[in-house]
Design brief:
Layout: H1 2-54, H2 86-105, H3 109-133, H4 137-142, E1 144-152, E2 156-160, H5 162-175, E3 178-189, E4 192-202, E5 211-222, E6 225-232
Parallel strand pairs: 1-6
Antiparallel strand pairs: 1-2, 3-4, 4-5, 5-6
Amino acid sequence: MKPSFIIYACLFAAFTLNCHAIEQSASSNNAELTQPEKVQPQQDALDTLTQEANIPKQPDVKRVTADDSKVLGSESTKPVEQPKSKVDKAQAVVEAEQAVTQAKEALTARQQAKAKQSRESLAVIEQLVKAYNARNIEEFIRMYDEDVEFYIFPNELLFKGKEKLIARYGIMFKKLKCLHSSPIKRIVHGDIVIDHELSETCSNDPNVIDKRSELISSYQIKDGKVVRVLFFR
């Protein structure tokens, strides 16, 4: 009895080991078949990236549209048509006169007033210089206001009033044998006249100039009289 039991037990154990070996073999085969399936998509992705990296990129070129804007002065000017007959010439003269009239009327009232003031200021200074060159003290002081002020730039008061003006220039007119002032450059703007002048004087002989200098003076005129003088040294 015992020997038969031992034989059956050995056969059963052998059968069990054989089945276990078959299962392990099958599991290994399935693992080998499954592994490539999981790795394959990753490998394909790597291959795609490698191919894209090897392909040279095309430069990004922006399209530039042609500039069709017009530049001032790019168009050729048309020659002015010359009048062909006397009637055309007369008409051209009339049109030119009308253009001048329109230009004058285009000035504003303020501009016209400023221009008139400039002309009046210039006339005062011209008379002043004429009296100075003639050493005519009466005509010279007539061009100044009673309370005229003389300054040295920028705001140093030299003297004030006609009395001191007469005392200063009256002595100079009598002492010197000649006086002559001529403008090198003159600026006139409304009630202001600025003179860059050349001054010449004769101390002993009226025909011999012994002193020559350049001066810059600013005059302010009001109601036909000089009210303020500024000397630049």
